[in-house]
TrEMBL record:
EC number annotated for this UniProt entry: 2.1.1.72
Ranges annotated as biased composition (Basic and acidic residues): 1127-1141
Reactions listed under catalytic activity: a 2'-deoxyadenosine in DNA + S-adenosyl-L-methionine = an N(6)-methyl-2'-deoxyadenosine in DNA + S-adenosyl-L-homocysteine + H(+)
Top EC class, one word: transferase
Endpoints of the signal sequence: none
InterPro entries: MethylTrfase_TaqI-like_dom, N4_N6_ade-DNA_methylase, SAM-dependent_MTases_sf
Protein's name according to its UniProt entry: site-specific DNA-methyltransferase (adenine-specific)
Length: 1236
């Protein structure tokens, strides 16, 4: 690996070449840049400098493909181009050794697949998107048999704001063809293209220099530089991975977050618990600031608001020189957030009156504050004046007056409110000139940070110190892009998906049920893009199929439509119209949306579909305008004179807004997204801050689809919609009880519901503060009226009505304790698709979770809750409940759903009541960083009796699948949820379950009992390396045993005041003190791990004991009585086996024979197919293991094998016993009657 000095020299050389790029001919400048990175070759060819000559030469590599589509690659905008050189294995070894490739042939090796070709193209104009560059790269790569790497020179966008905007730049595009080098051009279509985009030639961004230098030959390879094509290509692709970039960024940001939470103090209106309050406040601050950072990429916010040198001249004190002051947050960020981005441009932006106190502008958040912190208040106002109004709710100050009605609605507010003058105020953000209302947010958390900070408690580490950098310092080191990456093209920059990855982990970090995982592993809770894309695609195919006539090619055409790389629209004009109508009427819900991975995945895919179906946006425009025209006609024909004028005015305003939205077809994606968000996509999450982040993803997506134009009002940016009635904070697992309506419903209810739906539409599109307030107030009025009508009509119980009335969608700090799609979204007939990644919370989670479990069970809203169910079980059923007939639900859940006993009720219920379209088993993959494996299901609300579900296993990588056997659903059992092959479901020889031969039990849990001695001691306190009076019992744990034997043991405290009487689980002594037994690890692995014990060792709960029943002869206790009973034992349990019979049976089996069977591959395969979990093997799993029921004579060869193995392993624990184990496997397979 190269030294820091080498990197610095390379960095300086790259920067020098970029600076000289403008004044150097393109081929020469491009070659110099590659040379600075360590790549050069004499192998070249003259393909000409015009687009036609270069393309003509390239076409000769594969003439059978015909001419390259010039329009598609915008060849008319190519100013010049050049074929630079080819890099082959002739040159790479020498370059890797730091030598010039002397003696290499200079002739182009046209057939050498394992090589690179480099080309350079200069483009006209500045609006070159990532997709534009990817299209050119893909089309050229279709013609070359080897990977073609393209360097583009072009003008950079010149948006409003930002002193460094515009100028010239370069972009580098690299295609990943590592698996497809010998395949046809068809495979190039599906390859991912990665772009280092918009590298400024003058003053390049630090992050771009870092990325380019990381690709230098001298910087590649941890131990040695790549010395051949394969190693070099792998190193380049790995170096361009956005995963590594995201992980590095998250690590820095997580350290900052854990540190910053301890440095700040926000007003108590955010919650009584200061730790949680400050955690949420810091996440909210981070949300707002990272959003600002993304839109800064559009040039909408001047960079100098984040540069210390500029701030020194703007503020009276340098934020870096006063690390404990809060001047930067108060003066710059609060004014930016609340008085700029949330206020319309123009005269409304002004300073509040001087001084504090109870002035008339108190709690008017549209006014700038803290004049005393600025050197020149007019200059400060000038900085903010040209920033556009964005709306959307993210930048609404959460401070507000409280009325008696507020306290009646939410009595908990009393504890959070503060008295100011004669009234009560909820201070959450603290945007106030009152010192006692302001937050403390020191400058050091933005600039500087802290060296060697102690975060061990947060990170679960010991003795570790880390350097925490200021947030602005961190953000400045990375390149951001506002355009979301796709599975087939990505920019080497932090894209908006990063928001989800960062915030879902940070949100989990203070949740009791997930904080341990969150603090140790990044990205543990965020669904990867390729998984989201797959689930969205399959759900949409199932939906669209219902809107198209039967046809053999229907499914294939839909897959082509959904593909990011397949081109064109495969459907007829009539089918296209149907699909667009189906898109407009589609209703999708993510009931646990988190930070918006699935809502954004749906949005991006639907926009992609509409681009293909309707490139000029005409059909989408017509489809969405028709309802508005019909609404106007209804208003004109209305006979209600009291409402007619208002209805006409509102209908005309809606049409005018619609026409304005669709006026410029250059913004077609904006109108597609806007109306898809309004009509189709809905989300729910129990965490209010997560809801804000999901909205934020939508906002960025809408902004990226607009062009900045300083000559137009608001810089040409349309204010963002209001999403409070599209993504809501609520507990989606609890519904409102709606009893069957026996009589006629009051028609006024229907009228109010229709009006509420219309008012919600108006609010969604409200673009000024005045109209937002108007429609918000009307929404409250209508909800009150509707609730009163429902109560009078007795359509809902009084308690349910009270719940509905108390829900406030505009309160960013609160979540409803119920979810009602009719009340919240005006959707009464269900959704077409429910999709998501529900939380994975164990049955023994926090007290809060346990309370929710009890409430769920008491609600009687679920039919699949059984035993110690985990939280995803009700989510699975809830997703199904919320569907329309024919709708599809898909979620990615823990693969414990395949094996856990508690899941069987859910499995059987869906087999009987749903159509199971597909199961995707992902047990071999690590989708998340958290220690959980997964399964994806697709259930349809339809009859499944004669349907044959698909069962697929993914191997090594997601999408690499094998199809498993299946049958008509009516013939299947819950075993269809087992991904393993089922050849061991039955054996051709008599067998007995091992639970009929041995008592099977976990060992003791040697930590203090939670009730009697909580925290008094832990296991380590009871264990000694020496045997003495206090530690008389030999003791082992799972870490001590290998297959067959254990090599080390320690000694357990026993017979004292604390052990065993105060142990969390003591078990009984006779379990261990038998002549011989077997112990097995409770963790599943590549092989079963069972060991022989004849030394009466005690063991922990990490091991499972197998004690022959006859060895426990006459032992009686409650543990044994739960499993079996002696004849006449009280109380009688005829359902349990008789102890006498079990003891007689166990005497027929040698313990070493049982051990041999347990460690065999046959037993391993059986347990894989029948276990509850992919991580653990539980006693109940083992109890069902069939043991060949053979005579002692037939057992003896197995015993002989086991004794040989034990002898060898005791002599040498590392001895190779492969041959012995193979012979044993063969002998055991014969006993089972199966083919070994």
């Amino acid at each position: 690996m190269s030294s820091t000095g080498d990197n610095a020299a390379c960095r300086a050389q790259v920067q020098a070449v970029l600076t000289a790029f403008t004044d150097t001919p393109l081929p020469e400048a491009a070659v110099k840049l590659l040379d600075a990175l360590g790549y050069t070759s004499e192998k070249t060819a003259h393909f000409g400098s015009s687009a036609d000559s270069l393309l003509g030469s390239i076409e000769q590599f594969k003439p059978e493909l015909g001419p390259i589509n010039r329009d598609k690659i915008k060849a008319d905008l190519w100013k010049s181009c050049a074929f630079l050189f080819q890099l082959t294995n002739d040159e790479i070894p020498s370059l890797a050794a730091g030598q010039s490739p002397l003696g290499a042939d200079s002739k182009l090796a046209r057939g050498q697949i394992e090589s690179f070709v480099f080309l350079a193209i200069e483009l006209q104009g500045e609006n070159w998107s990532r997709t534009d560059l990817a299209v050119i790269t893909r089309e050229i790569n279709k013609r070359f048999p080897m990977p073609a790497i393209l360097l583009f020179k072009h003008q950079l966008p010149s948006p409003a704001g930002g002193r460094r905007a515009g100028g010239e730049g370069v972009s580098l595009a690299v295609i990943d063809r590592r698996q497809n080098l010998r395949d046809s051009s068809r495979d190039v279509i599906n390859s991912r293209i990665t772009v280092i985009k918009d590298v400024r030639l003058a003053n390049p961004h630090r992050a771009h220099l870092d990325i380019l230098v990381s690709l230098a030959l001298e910087a590649l390879g941890e131990r040695r530089r790549p010395s051949n094509f394969r190693e070099l290509y792998d190193a380049w692709i790995d170096g361009l991975s956005t995963q590594a970039l995201n992980k590095r960024f998250y690590t820095e940001l997580a350290w900052w977050y854990f540190w910053a939470v301890k440095q700040v103090e926000f007003p108590k209106g955010g919650g009584e618990d200061p730790t949680k309050r400050n955690s949420i406040a810091v996440i909210r601050l981070l949300t707002r600031l990272i959003f600002v950072w993304f839109i800064k990429e559009k040039g909408l916010i001047p960079e100098d608001l984040f540069e210390r040198e500029t701030l020194k001249g703007l503020l009276k004190t340098d934020p870096g020189a006063k690390p404990e002051d809060s001047s930067y947050y108060l003066a710059i960020l609060q004014n930016l957030f609340f008085a700029t981005l949330n206020v319309e441009m123009g005269k409304e932006r002004k300073w509040a009156q001087d001084g504090g106190g109870m002035k008339g502008d108190r709690l008017i958040h549209s006014l700038y504050r803290y004049q005393e912190l600025f050197k020149d208040v007019d200059a400060a106002l000038g900085r903010f004046m040209h920033i556009p109004f964005l709306n959307g709710g993210l930048f609404e100050c959460l401070d507000r007056d409280l009325s008696e009605r507020d306290f009646q609605r939410d009595p908990e507010l009393k504890a959070l409110a503060v008295k100011e003058g004669n009234g009560w105020v909820l201070r959450v953000d603290g945007f106030s000139r009152r010192k006692d209302a302001q937050p403390s947010v020191p400058n050091k958390i933005f600039f500087g940070g802290e060296a060697q900070a102690d975060l061990n408690a947060d990170l679960g580490t010991r003795g570790k110190r880390v350097d925490v950098h200021g947030l602005i310092d961190i953000l400045s080191r990375y390149k951001f892009t506002v355009e979301e990456n796709t599975p087939v093209e990505e920019e080497v920059a932090l894209d908006p998906e990063l928001l989800g990855k960062v915030f879902e982990n940070l949100l989990a970090s203070y949740n009791e049920d997930t904080q341990a995982t969150a603090r140790k592993q990044s990205g543990s809770f965020y669904t990867p893009r390729e998984v989201v894309d797959y689930m969205v695609d399959e759900a949409l195919v199932a939906y669209f199929e219902r809107h198209l006539p039967e046809a053999a090619e229907r499914a294939a055409n839909l897959c082509q439509l959904l593909s990011y790389t397949d081109e064109g629209n495969p459907f007829s004009k009539e089918e296209t119209a149907r699909l667009i109508a189906a898109t407009e009427s589609l209703k999708i819900l993510d009931p646990a949306c988190g930070s918006g991975a699935f809502p954004m995945g749906v949005l991006n895919k639907l926009v992609h579909i509409l681009r293909k179906l309707d490139p000029d946006n005409a059909l989408w425009r017509t489809q969405n305008r028709e309802p508005l025209e019909a609404k106007l006609q209804l208003a004109l024909a209305s006979k209600d004179l009291s409402r007619k004028d208002t209805e006409i005015e509102e209908a005309e305003a809606s049409l005018a807004k619609f026409d304005e939205d669709f006026a410029d077809n250059r913004h077609a994606d904006y109108t597609r997204k806007l109306y898809l968000i309004e009509k189709c996509i809905h989300g729910v999450d129990i965490q209010p801050i997560a809801v804000q982040i999901a909205k934020l993803r939508f906002f960025i997506s809408l902004i990226v689809s607009q062009e900045v134009d300083p000559a137009k009002p608001n810089q040409g940016i349309t204010a963002l919609p209001n999403l409070e009635t599209k993504i809501v904070a609520a507990n989606s697992l609890f519904s409102i009880e709606r009893p069957a309506q026996l009589g006629l419903r009051d028609p006024n209810i229907d009228d109010r519901e229709k009006e509420l739906a219309a008012v919600n539409e108006h609010y969604f599109g409200a673009r000024t503060s005045r109209t937002k307030r108007k429609w918000r107030e009307r929404i409250f009025e209508l909800r009150e009226e509707l609730a009163q009508l429902l109560e009078e009509d007795r359509f809902l119980p009084e308690g349910a009505v009270r719940q509905l009335v108390h829900w406030n969608p505009f309160d960013q700090n609160a979540a409803a304790d119920f979810f009602d799609p009719e009340w919240m979204f005006q959707i009464a007939d269900g959704f077409d698709i429910t999709i998501g990644n529900p939380p994975y919370v164990r049955a023994d989670g926090s007290a809060e979770y346990l309370a929710q479990r009890r409430r769920l069970e008491a609600s009687r809203q679920y039919q699949t809750l059984w035993e110690k169910w985990d939280l995803y079980i009700p989510f699975i059923e809830r997703g199904y409940q919320l569907l329309k007939p024919g709708g599809v639900t898909t979620m990615i859940v823990s693969d414990a759903y395949c094996h856990a006993k508690y899941a069987q009720k859910s499995q059987i219920w869906f087999l009987k009541n749903a159509r199971i379209l597909r199961l995707d088993f992902l047990s071999d993959l690590k989708i998340f960083d958290a220690a959980v494996h997964n399964v994806i299901y697709f259930y349809q609300r339809a009859d499944g009796v004669h349907h044959t579900p698909e069962r697929r296993v993914h191997h090594e990588t997601f999408g690499n699948v094998t199809t498993l056997p299946s049958d008509e659903q009516a013939k299947l059992t819950h075993r269809m949820f087992f991904p393993e092959e089922t050849q061991h479901a039955g054996f051709f020889a008599p067998t007995l379950q091992i639970g009929s031969i041995c008592y099977v039990s976990f060992g003791c849990r040697p930590n203090s009992d939670e009730k009697q001695a909580k925290g008094l001691f832990v296991a380590a306190d009871l264990v000694s390396e020496m045997c003495d009076k206090e530690h008389p019992k030999r003791y082992i744990e799972a870490k001590d045993i290998q297959r067959w034997t254990y090599q080390q043991s320690r000694w357990l405290e026993w017979g004292t005041k604390r052990s065993p009487s105060l142990l969390a689980r003591a078990t009984f002594e006779e379990l261990y003190e038998v002549a011989e037994k077997i112990v097995a690890a409770d963790v599943s692995g590549a092989e079963n791990r069972a060991a022989y014990d004849a030394s009466q060792a005690f063991h922990s709960h990490t091991l499972i004991s197998f004690v022959p029943w006859h060895s426990l002869d006459s032992v009686r206790n409650n543990s044994l009585k739960k499993t079996a009973r002696y004849s006449g034992e009280k109380p009688p349990r005829p359902d349990l086996p008789k102890r006498e019979e079990l003891e007689a049976t166990s005497r027929r089996f040698a313990v070493k024979y049982l051990l041999g069977v347990m460690n065999s591959s046959t037993a391993r395969d059986f347990l894989r197919a029948n276990r509850r979990s992919n991580i653990h093997l539980y006693p109940d799993d083992w109890k069902n293991l069939p043991i060949p029921d053979v005579s002692p004579e037939q057992q003896q060869p197995i015993v002989d094998f086991v004794e040989q193995i034990l002898t060898v392993k005791r002599a040498n624990p590392n001895a190779d016993i492969t041959a012995l184990e193979s012979g044993l496997d063969h002998a055991i397979a014969l006993l089972y009657g199966t083919t070994p």
